């Protein structure tokens, strides 16, 4: 279903994605982080819905639909390294730093830090071109909010 989208995203020199496609790619990354610990539950999917509704000004129905599409894209997407590097090349920096906070919201949604999620967040942050310091500051902001 998303073969053409993934082909454009992983092209040698991808163009900047239109907003709708960037939303889908970044939401798929949220899903990938949520699934990284082997448990993807209703609490995490609900958190993703809230994040995308708030970030993109969507209705609950639109947010749930975006997440459902992102779940399919995530399942079809290449390995995390190629997928994340493709996002870095196609998504503006401001959107990437904002998504790190969202990724931490998902990773911390169950109230516990998991070593696999931490490792994936470090990898994803670096691959998105976000420094460890900025990622740690994003995590601290999320922890203060919860």
UniProtKB/TrEMBL annotation:
Q: Where is the Co-chaperone DjlA N-terminal domain?
A: 23-140
InterPro entries for the chain: DjlA_N (IPR007791), TerB-like (IPR029024)
Superkingdom of origin organism:
Bacteria
Q: What is this protein called?
A: Co-chaperone DjlA N-terminal domain-containing protein
